[in-house]
Amino acid sequence: MALSLQAAREALIAFQRFGLGAKPGGPAQIGGGAKAAVRAEVETANIAAINDPTLPSYPKACSESQKGHAEDLRQQELAARVDKHIAAQIGFVERLVIFWANHFSMSVNKDDAIRGTMGQWERDVVRANVLGRFGRMLQGTIAHPAMIAYLDNQDSIGPNSPIGLEWGVGLNENLAREILELHTLGSDGGYTEADVTALAKIITGWSFVRSWEADGGYNGGTNQNRGRFIYRGNWHEPGPVTLMGKSYPALGQQQAELVFQDLAVHPATAEHIAFKLVRHFITDEPTPAMVNPLKQKFLQTKGNLMAVSLALLDLPEAWSAPLTKLRTPYEMTIAQYRALGARYENDNIWAFSEPLNALHQMAWEAPTPEGHADETPKWLNPDAMRLRLDIAEFHNRVCVGYYQGNVVQLADRLFNAALSKQTRDRLTGLEYPNDELVILFTSPEFQRR
Amino acid sequence: MTDNPAKNATNPHLRCAAAEGCAESRLLMSRRAMLGVTAGLFSWAYMPRFAEAASTDPRLLVVVLRGGTDGINMVVPLGDPHYVSMRGSIAIPAASTIPLNSFFGLHPAMPKFGAMFQAKDAAVVHATCVPMRNRSHFDAQDNLESGLPGKLSANSTGWLNRLLTALPAGAPVKTHGAIEINDAPLILRGPAPVLGWSSTWFEAYENPGLRLVRSLYRARDQEMYDMLERGLEANRLAGGYNDGDISMLRKGFRGAGRLIGSPNGPRIAVLAVDGWDTHSDQGGTTGFMADVMAELDTAIDDFKTAVGAAWKDTVMVAATEFGRTVRTNGDDGTDHGVGTVALLAGGAVNGGKVFGDWPGLAPNQLYEDSDLWPTTDLRSVFKGVLRDHLGVARNLLNGPIFPDSAGATPFRNLIKSSAPAGASSAVASAPVPLRAEPAIARYRREQRA
To answer: Which of A187, A370, A376 should be substituted to probe chain B, the one whose Cβ sees the most B Cβ atoms within 10 Å?
Structure first.
């Protein structure tokens, strides 16, 4: 079905800005109702869930991580993630999952406790709440062994706790600092260094059971709770703690839970998340006119992420701002898989990871807690633009070997009337269709979002 | 494609970073007081320097050895009476080493570096460590690259980027800039623009398709066009696709040499070398670590060839986040331990010397009864190179580049002659941020203004 130019351009925005790229015939399927189609995806029940009974439960992921199976779990989870990306019609909810996983960025390279549980965390914490409450995602993340291991809270001990006094040990502020700076209020969000220390005290005792603790029965560890979250009361700093001017009573584990409830609906958190969503999806330079409607929706709904995500779609700029950002390397990879209807084979995960490592965006391996960047220059730079050509060609061979189809027809089905004449004219006449596919997959239509 | 050499390119050192002991060792450190350096250390440093013509257009290659390099088995203290007993099964026999002086021998896997040493184009600084003296890969690598006395935040800038920011306009290093090879390391993170070039094994996408992509970008997207053209040009300078079937590491060193040796190329390059985390089966004269050293040795020699006539103006400094325990562990390996070596090579290096104060390997001479006692702050090594090779003023070294480092004075005599032609002004030419301003902080600042 040939769409009008206007309808095809809106479909382009749906698939590029908000989705993971069209599959053949995608624009024709959503017809003239691009925004309605994206909205419908958000409103589909259980849209984010991965229904695969072979994927591990929380207890299993935690224990298997300590039995030498962390890498197997990572590969299995990653394959399920990629398949879910490919299956989505538009992929806006998948993009939200990627966004939130990056918001709470961790790296599997730090510890097997992360490597083996990150997929389970993403399914049971991120996907489960991606259209639900931000506060639940926050709580679920901070109480997960992956995040505790990633930001070193397993050994943070209140200096005045029984164990702190006995061992003469103290706080590790890493997790507390990043909760305030990266996960909730955001940098310059009205907290002080004293608040970082206060939060570090509040989350003392939030730990997980390491293998030597499970093996030897130390510190509350058993074979049953191996690798799982554990609250160690005798490591917890006693007494009430004042954070951001409010005193939180000495309630043990619940002290931190009350703090997270407040942080999750704080105006600075709402602003931070609104800003990040606009920056990720629309422009490197969000304005208050774009940020404030999302911030207000976040506050009105106490962090209902479905409402906030729909508010993003309702911004006028969502459908009018030019596509000045560039697909990230990860999004480009997935979009190419979707266009070709194929991906790497499970026993060749290197065919997925090597290109992404070369472009500095391997999934679940961001080098710092800030996660992968959202600034366009991070991806749109000389070395990356050269490599994208070589890597597009590599993915073609991984996915389809030698392409037998007609590249112009494929381009028409991916972009409909939004395919430019300049691009279309260059997709034909080469000796090898694979070379024509590279032009398609590195064209501005395919790269810009 | 299954025979691709990259198939098994996982990161064993990063997997090992999760090995038990990495996190626990921080607890150990915090329990113990830092002790002062004892008197009576064997010293051979501070020899008179050679008088030679000054470099006018200095080149610098910084190599980050990731994983924690065992300096004790790389530059072997043969004259220390405790070396053989401490190292046991993995001790390097004196007769197999390459003689450096009456006390030290070089591991036999590094003959090319040994030849440079004997030609007085290479030197070693022994018993160095980053200021934090921390045994966590993540924290210690951050510390090496941030150049800060301790952990500041998740988004600190790197000291090489601060150098670029602080230098006055007109300095060749400032004008020609720096390039990151393969990695996007923290050491170059910050507001000063940095180039990138990657050595990859992907086949090059070539004409006629390449010509069509370039013409498409020129017709439709000037920004993508400019970036691609610059990327292709950088790759031409680096000789990226012409090195045949050699490792990515060697391709990286060759590319770095060609780039910084080009009259119009960058003057600083940064590379990372993985594989030093030798917890088990480290090997002795042969084996795992010998292979890693041999690869580095070959790569440094490749670099020398590639940099060509600019070798006389070049300094390579290779440093690692920490060393290994003096004693072997139960798996014929060594665990994280602070003191280790830094390597220098290049025509501008005051070579043929092993610099530093040797702390000794007797049990009572070890740091925390475990490690080689660090007698030189690694920042002193970097500062010595920057001052004497690039002519960076002391105020810049102690202020914006290595804050709070006045106690770590620039190491003397590392460079054949001081470099007055490159001397910088003592005042930074631009504000030099210690941390990158997060996007949300900038947004908030602009809203307040």
So the answer is: A187
d(CA B436, CA B251): 31
Of B20, B231, B445, the CB nearest to A188: B445
The mean per-residue pLDDT over the stretch A38-65 comes to 98
Identify which of A275, A438, A439 has the shortest CB distance to residue B440. Answer: A275
What mean pLDDT is reported for chain B? 84
In whole angstroms, what is the distance from residue A114 CA to residue A62 CA?
Answer: 9
pLDDT for B423 equals 56
Q: Which residues contact A199 (CB under 8 A, 6 or more apart)?
A: A176, A179, A180, A243, A259
Asked if residue B210 is part of any domain, the answer here is no
pLDDT in tens, A332-387: 999 999 999 999 999 999 999 999 999 999 999 998 899 999 989 889 999 999 99
| Strand bridging mode B323-324 / B75-77 | unpaired
**A25-29, A265-269, B86-90, B231-235 — which is least confidently predicted?**
B231-235
Token code pair at residue A360: 């500095």
CA count, 13 A, side-chain hemisphere, A293: 16
What pLDDT does residue B425 have?
67
Q: In this structure, what CATH number is given to the domain that contains residue B102?
A: 3.40.720
Chain A CB contacts of B17 below 8 Å: 109-111
Interchain pair B227, A422: CB under 8 A: no
Name the residue range of residue A409's domain. 329-447
Q: What is the DSSP string of A143-211?
A: TSHHHHHHTTGGG---TTSHHHHHHT-----HHHHHIIIIISS-TTSS--HHHHHHHHHHTTTEEE--H
In a domain, A1, yes or no: no
Residue B331 lies in a domain: yes
Q: Is residue A7 part of a domain?
A: no
Which residues are registered as beta bridge partners of B273? Answer: B65
Residue A204 lies in a domain: yes
pLDDT at residue B175 in the model: 82
**Does A346 contact B at CB distance below 8 Å?**
no
**In this predicted model, what pLDDT tens digit does every residue of B13-38 receive, in sequence order?**
323 333 333 332 222 222 222 222 22
Residues 6 or more apart whose Cβ sits within 8 Å of residue A133: A264, A302, A303, A304, A305
Task: List Cα–Cα distances, A21 to A399, A400, B429, in angstroms.
Answer: 16, 18, 45
Write the DSSP string, B93-150. Answer: PGGGSEE-SSSEEE-TT-HHHHHHHHTTSEEEEEEEE-TT----HHHHHHHHHH--SS
3-state secondary structure of B201: coil
Q: Rounded to the nearest 5 degrees, what angle is found at the Cα of B340, between the Cα atoms of B339 and B343?
A: 150
Rounded CA separation A105/A151 (Å): 10
Q: What value does the mean pLDDT take over residues B96-100?
A: 98
Is pLDDT at A291 greater than 50 in this prediction? Answer: yes
User: B334 touching A, CB under 8 A?
Assistant: no
Question: What part of B 335-354 touches A (C-beta under 8 Å)?
Answer: none
How far is Cα B348 from Cα A63, in angstroms, rounded to an integer?
54
Q: What secondary structure does DSSP assign to A116-139, as a single string?
A: TTHHHHIIIIIIHHTTSBHHHHHH
> Which residues are CB-contacts of A445 (< 8 A; sequence separation ≥ 6)?
A12, A415, A418, A419, A420, A423
Q: Decide if A141 is inside a domain.
A: no
Expressed as residue numbers, the domain containing B102 is: 52-199+243-448
Count of structural domains within chain B = 1
| Whether A275 and B24 lie within 8 Å, measured CB to CB | no
Amino acid identity for residue B335 in this structure:
D
Question: Looking at the structure, do residues A180 and A231 belong to the same domain, yes or no?
Answer: yes
Supply the ipTM of this predicted assembly: 0.96
Query: For the segment A69-121, what is each residue's pLDDT rounded down to a tens digit?
Result: 999 999 999 999 999 999 999 999 999 999 999 999 999 988 999 999 999 99
Q: Is A197 exposed, middle or buried (0-12, 13-18, 19+ CB in 10 A)?
A: middle
Inter-chain contact B438–A186, Cβ cutoff 8 Å? yes
